[in-house]
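Need a sequence for this fold. Nothing fancy.
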């Protein structure tokens, strides 16, 4: 484990995430291993486990317990009392699990929710502890996943439209596309990292406005991102200031290459994690180490074998296919200096 800077006595940092089994638990295990590697035991970690969903496996629980992860059970009222197949409900109802992780923050605590599909590339605690407002939020990549009228939405919720503006990329960038321009737009945040102190009224407002949007779900064009749409509404309703955190705390596959020294990689899907590991040597080395811990302690290996072996596998396939790809004109001839 890496040594972390001392956490100020007046602010205790606690990372929280959701954890349940069987298919979802591997994300949380990887994140916990990454947190402990970079932050050591100077931060607390708590996993919130919905009682509606199947529990984590015994080996997964042992893995968490060895890393001093506190387990807290809660009930998600949007899910059936017992749900064995998460695919049978709207994904947003599962996403609402995160709303319960930030309630009842203790005095002197700074609580940071993380989506489980993330890994660290460094210690984020100095940036997080620099937060001075009751809440710290990170901008979404682009405004493209919100198709409504912000001013009209604010007013429909009994709120004055926010006058504050934040910068984000104008559009998504795929593959080798160049970096899009930045634009100034209404506050719109990634809900994969939310940081609050005990003074923040954001958690209760976030729960309230998510519930209200759920009641009006038919009025939204896109329903997948309800938790993100409700977040700026909650921030406005709280009547409190919020800090915009560095994009280093939320590098996604679309913008990873545009961010200098990213600290958290929000990879979303396994293939994106594998592809980024192939391009980023420090990430590959880190994944190789923590996935080794997972294999030794839980027997989980199949998916991570792809991640840790991807560069070698990709290079071999490309070498075998080069001649055919050159003849088809899909890649430049070797030695031309072209891509």
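Here you go.
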């Amino acid at each position: 484990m890496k040594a972390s800077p001392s956490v100020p006595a007046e602010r205790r940092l606690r990372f929280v995430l959701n954890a349940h089994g069987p298919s979802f638990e591997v994300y949380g295990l990887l994140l916990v291993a990454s947190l402990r590697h970079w932050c050591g035991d100077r931060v607390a970690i708590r996993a919130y486990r919905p009682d509606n969903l199947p529990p984590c496996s015994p080996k997964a629980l042992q893995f968490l317990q060895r890393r001093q992860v506190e387990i807290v059970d809660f009930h998600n009222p949007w899910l059936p009392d017992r749900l064995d197949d998460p695919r049978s409900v709207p994904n947003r109802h599962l996403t609402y699990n995160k709303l319960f992780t930030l309630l009842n923050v203790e005095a002197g605590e700074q609580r940071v929710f993380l989506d489980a599909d993330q890994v660290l590339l460094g210690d984020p605690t100095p940036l997080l502890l620099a937060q001075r407002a009751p809440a710290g939020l990170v901008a979404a990549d682009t405004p493209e996943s919100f198709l409504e009228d912000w001013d009209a939405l604010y007013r429909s919720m009994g709120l004055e439209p926010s006058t504050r503006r934040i910068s984000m990329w104008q559009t998504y960038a795929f593959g080798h596309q160049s970096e899009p321009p930045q634009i100034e737009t209404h506050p719109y945040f990634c809900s994969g990292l939310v940081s609050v102190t005990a003074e923040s009224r954001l958690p209760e407002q976030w729960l309230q406005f998510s519930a209200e949007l759920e009641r009006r779900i038919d009025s939204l064009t896109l329903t997948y991102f309800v938790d993100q749409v409700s977040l700026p509404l909650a921030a406005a309703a709280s009547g409190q200031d919020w800090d915009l955190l560095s994009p280093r705390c939320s590098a996604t596959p679309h913008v990873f290459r545009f961010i200098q020294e990213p600290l958290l990689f929000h990879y979303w899907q396994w293939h994106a994690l594998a592809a980024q590991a192939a391009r980023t040597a420090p990430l590959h080395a880190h994944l190789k180490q923590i996935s080794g811990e997972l294999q030794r302690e839980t027997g989980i290996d199949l998916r991570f074998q792809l991640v840790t072996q991807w560069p070698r596998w990709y290079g071999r396939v490309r070498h075998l296919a080069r001649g055919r790809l050159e003849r088809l004109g899909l890649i430049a001839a070797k030695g031309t200096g072209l891509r």
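For context: The chain has a mean pLDDT of 88.
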